[in-house]
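Listing S7. Sequence submitted for prediction.
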Amino acid sequence: MTNILEKSPWLRALIAHRARLEIEGEALAIDDRRYRIDEGIVRFRESDGYNDTFALQWKRFRETQLDIVNGASLSRKRFAETGWDLSALRDATVLEAGSGAGRFTRILGEAGARLVTFDYSSAVDANFENNGGLENVLFCQADIFDMPFRDDAFDYVFCHGVLQHTPDPRAAFEGLASKVKPGGRISIDIYRRDFRIRPWKSKRIWRPLTTRMKPETLLGFLDRFIPAWLPVDTAIKRLPRVGVYLGSIVPCWNYWYTDLSDRAKLEWAIMDTFDALAPKYDIPASLDEVRRWFEDRGLAEIEVREGGNGVVGNARKPA
């Protein structure tokens, strides 16, 4: 993997937006700065920063969301919200921002895309463990607010499950939109801001406390609490009409309605409850806000709608 830049001129073209780019042993040199190439990952940043909870989460639940492991198709169904034809991705340059453990990296990589995938934290290590065998993928640790890629470089830009966990979701979106080449497409999603009472809103009650806890302490508590509470929570959420309201008090991300195995449902419940309660940032946006983001960037074929994760936004950059 160290030599992927040397073997792939298309990758060099995406990154070489400055005067000089060279491979120097186990480092990538751009002008006067050197970046480590560590275990097949280019480290444009070194620390976990404000996303340390995700580094913990994805190393613990490295394979949980992979369809090939859990036997379901939740990741593929979620990816379908892009509206992209997988067959059209072969040999297309694709940027994946905020890859986590690589549930979507696997889909994009197996489609034959020339994929650059990055995460802010060392969660990218989990992605590399899962998908490092895909020779058409470059793995990076990088900051969405300081991406080391030139503008107008990618045929497709993909960012699902990420923007709400940044300190400025709109600015992050605008940075991503700048990387799409004319005629290219972008797909994002973000948690939805509205005034409905829903089970996932229960985190708003508890986050003032849980975000002050050590992530390891919170995860240890959920390891004990969720197995005991999950059957009760399932019974509550199965209740017609009132279940959605009663289930909006105690946080428990419950996948009782899916075709996951019982063991996988428990694992997802612990993982996603931690995902809701631990991150430093959790900033939702309304449908109208997201639509304005796209319109203000002058994008075309805009589709902004409710999706599985909140709000989905798809568009094309005019040629």
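Caption to Listing S7: primary sequence and predicted structure tokens for the chain studied. The chain has a mean pLDDT of 92. The two ends are 34 Å apart (CA to CA).
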